[in-house]
Amino acid sequence: MKEEIVRLLKEREGYLSGQELCGSLGVSRTAVWKVIKQLQKEGYEIEAVRNRGYRLIESGDVMTEAEIKSCMGQGIIGRNVVYYEETDSTNIRAKHLAEAGYPEGTLAVAEKQNAGKGRRGRRWTSPEGTGIWMSLVLRPDIAPAQASMLTLVAALGVSEGIYEYARIPAQIKWPNDLVLNGRKICGILTEMWTELETIQYVVVGIGINVNMEEFPEELSKTATSLYLEMGEKLKRAPLMGAVARAFERYYKIFQEKGDLSSLKEAYESRLANMNRQVTVMDPAGAYSGICRGIHRGGELLVEREDGQLCKVLSGEVSVRGIYGYV
Question: What is the rounded average pLDDT for all residues in the chain?
């Protein structure tokens, strides 16, 4: 009921009477009043006027299950939200939720992570009150070999969501980072669990640096936040909602063909690597070339100095001008 009251208050410009709320929700005035009191304690500034009703004045950067749900769209992504004030890792929580039978689109969100991680086991710094730390449970009807493409779909959704909400054109550094002015603002970690060559579920973890004012010394040259780039604090829950809606749009398009052929143009328009010199750390030996976009299977296309066009399926790819690479 909390999220419905929050949603109704947000949709109304003026006052919303207690009678309207009771009628919409099928509950008593006492029940409505109790929820309003809870919301005020959580940080919502709600004005209550006799014979007029309730009016939402300001919500602040509230991160609660009710607030997050009220910002989600009408699709499957975010229909179920499980919120943790503090946890080890939202990917670990999402894995447990998936194994417990939670449906596709379930979203695990934390205010603070103690064991957030990125690719190759790297630690992802996720302090309290500053970022978006969330993981999605997906149950796609695709082959395990196609699952890696979901990282690119997620990156596209995050880039689009950030632009829709904050009008900031974050670029994608293939395959799983988003950058602004050459520094990282978002990391994506996709993990898959299979049985007999069939996907049981996929967890897509997304960490966005939103309101950080500073970073540890070892990260200060390679990481940034939306706040540091635009100079103003953002409300995280509605940004999360914008990302979830954008991801769902692209996820549906991806599922129609099971590859990125229909998303290739949109992805390449946001690709930081595009037409820039890159260095590929291949196990057989590092090589350099010019990025020419992506293949429909998600591989990065790199044109080597001899004109050979290579498909990079995985590995470290450095882009000139990003993370200090010159």
Answer: 90
- Give the tokens for residue 236: 């995280």
Count of residues in the chain: 326
Which DSSP helix (H) or strand (E) runs through 3?
helix 2-11
Mean pLDDT, range 49-74, rounded to an integer:
87
For 260-270, write each residue's pLDDT tens digit: 999 999 999 99
Q: What per-residue string of b and e applies to 234-244 under the rule 16 or more CB within 10 Å gives b?
A: bbbbbbbbbbb
Query: What is the DSSP annotation of 220-254?
Result: TTTB--HHHHHSS---HHHHHHHHHHHHHHHHHHH
pLDDT at 118 over 70: no
Joined together, the tokens standing for residue 176 give 């799983």
Contact 121, 89 (CB under 8 A): no
Q: Return the SS3 of 117.
A: strand
Say whether pTM exceeds 0.85.
Answer: yes
For the record, the structure tokens of 123 come out as 């630690």
pLDDT tens digit sequence for 90-105? 999 999 999 999 999 9
Place of tokens 């909400």: 165
Mean pLDDT of 73-85: 94
Q: How far apart are CA 175 and CA 280, in angstroms?
A: 13
Task: Compute how many other C-beta atoms are within 10 angstroms of the C-beta atom of residue 255.
Answer: 14
With a cut of 70, say whether residue 49 has pLDDT above it.
Answer: yes
d(CA 321, CA 176): 17
Q: What is the mean pLDDT of residues 196-201?
A: 91
pLDDT of 296? 96
Residue 30 burial (C-beta neighbours within 10 Å; 0-12, 13-18, 19+): exposed
Q: Report which of 238, 61, 266, 70 is spatially closest to residue 166, judged by C-alpha positions.
A: 238
* Strands, sheet with 300-304, edge to edge from the N-terminal-most edge strand: 309-312, 300-304, 287-294, 277-281, 316-319
Secondary structure of residue 55 in the 3-state scheme? strand
